[in-house]
Amino acid sequence: MSTATTPLVSEMLIGDDILTGASGPTLTHHYAATGEPNGEVPLGGEPEVAAAVAAAKAALPAWEALGPVERRNRLARLAEVVESWTGRFEAIASAETGMPKQGFAWRVRLSCEWIRTYVGYADKVGGDVTASADDGTLEYTRLEPYGVVGIIITWNSPLLSLCMKIPAALAAGNTVVVKPSELTPYTPALFGRACLEAGIPPGVVNVVVGGAEAGEVLTVHPDVEKVSFTGGLSTAAAMMRSGAALVKPFCFELGGKSAYTVFPDADVDLAVTLASKEMSNAGQSCKFGSRLFVHDAVFDEYREKLAAAIGRVVVGDPEDTGTTMGPLITRGAQERVLGFVEGARGRGDGQVLLGGGVPQLDTRLRHGYFVEPTVFTDVDPASPLGQDEIFGPVFGMFRWSDEETLVEQVNSTKFGLSNYVHTRDLRTATRMVHRLKSGTVYVNDANRRNPGAPFGGFRASGIGSEGGRRGLEEFLRAKTVGIA
Ligand code: NAD
């Protein structure tokens, strides 16, 4: 039996209890490539969140007492366990998300790199000594963990999302309650088991599977001192409203409308290859460079090469090793993206160059949630196609000739997550890096998700960062101490 049809088991971790039932309704999980049910997901709510927060609070003294060196050692062991369970994570990945199995081992390796980065920080949390006052008073800052931290993530890359937040939170000395997306409960459950296997004390990492309601309860819980969230803008805005009464601090990693800017001197083949690789998760990536701003001088060459590269994308069963693009996460996501494409076509936001519909696949995949890789040209930058995050495999091409207008158009959306500049000229590169309003800008490269570098958005793409020392500091607060 293929993994995709193997029933998946959803469980929660609260303290050292592994629970397979829940207080809420049960959601049926579907294999996105066929639409067939492949698991039942019992949803937790207020009782599970309350129990998990209590377990996380109770575990704080023991986690603190371990001290930085032993916390570091347990995190190092966690990286080893996750790495040694690569096959187990791989086995559920496609069945859970519809992401192609091909290349998933690389995602596990990257996730382990994120854990190891915070292994390195765990024994290096320190504050500053401020300039001594003339009277000899000693003043210093002590960086302290928040305590219990809520971690709320979405479904598009569950293992990496967990590893971009939890190791940093634990290295800083916090305990966590994780509320994964109800669409992808399986990887977080296995991650919870990996934490126990690594000797991370029970209660330090808790996993509550649930929907929006569980997320809301976690957000407003008075014992949750901070929430780190990856997901959509409207959810973040709702969380800010519900957390306002307690002025809850948030780290928000949100969506984007990232752009490739291709200059006349660019390596066009490279720019095309990097853009087309973004189809690997069917465009369901926050940093997806969905807007392709190509200079007039190389526009036709780029368009032809992009069409050829998109033609080589193999859409199919994510379990097949040759597949390079799978389905979208749910039927609802498929309908939303197809509806968006139809709307853009109807409004005349641009001209469809490629795709725009449902691919013709074999009968077994007929009810899967697929959308063809789609390219629009001559896109109106001010239109919904030019402004809104689609979160599907849809590119828009824009022709440009004047740098002022280019910069204005690239910066014209409400987002500011990532941008990509393709040029061989150093001065052009640095000028663009300075002018583009986004949390990351890569020149002649794709976003690497390097765990040593901060990743975060400007404007409506988020608040705060994951990665590097800044990612650690998200989970620390400064206390000033004065000793006379
Ligand atoms: P979403 O906001 O609908 O859901 C994300 C999580 O929030 C889920 O666990 C969900 O159950 C929970 N949730 C929903 N309502 C809530 C509420 N009122 N209070 C608390 N929790 C609540 O996100 P989505 O649409 O599933 O995810 C896609 C979005 O995530 C895209 O915009 C994408 O760009 C973004 N994303 C950003 C990053 C990043 O690092 N910047 C990474 C991946 C995805």
TrEMBL record:
Active site, per annotation: E253
What EC number(s) is this enzyme filed under? 1.2.1.-
What's a Gene Ontology MF term here? oxidoreductase activity
Q: What broad class of enzyme is this? A: oxidoreductase
Among Pfam families, the record links this protein to: Aldedh
Keyword annotations for this protein, in alphabetical order, are: Oxidoreductase
Q: What is this protein called?
A: Aldehyde dehydrogenase family protein
Q: Which family does it belong to?
A: Belongs to the aldehyde dehydrogenase family.
List each copy of the Aldehyde dehydrogenase domain by range.
Answer: 27-481
Organism whose genome encodes this protein: Pseudonocardia nematodicida
- List the InterPro entries hit by this protein, alphabetically: Ald_DH/histidinol_DH (IPR016161), Ald_DH_C (IPR016163), Ald_DH_CS_GLU (IPR029510), Ald_DH_N (IPR016162), Aldehyde_DH_dom (IPR015590)
Q: What positions belong to coiled-coil segments?
A: none
Keyword Repeat belongs to the record: no
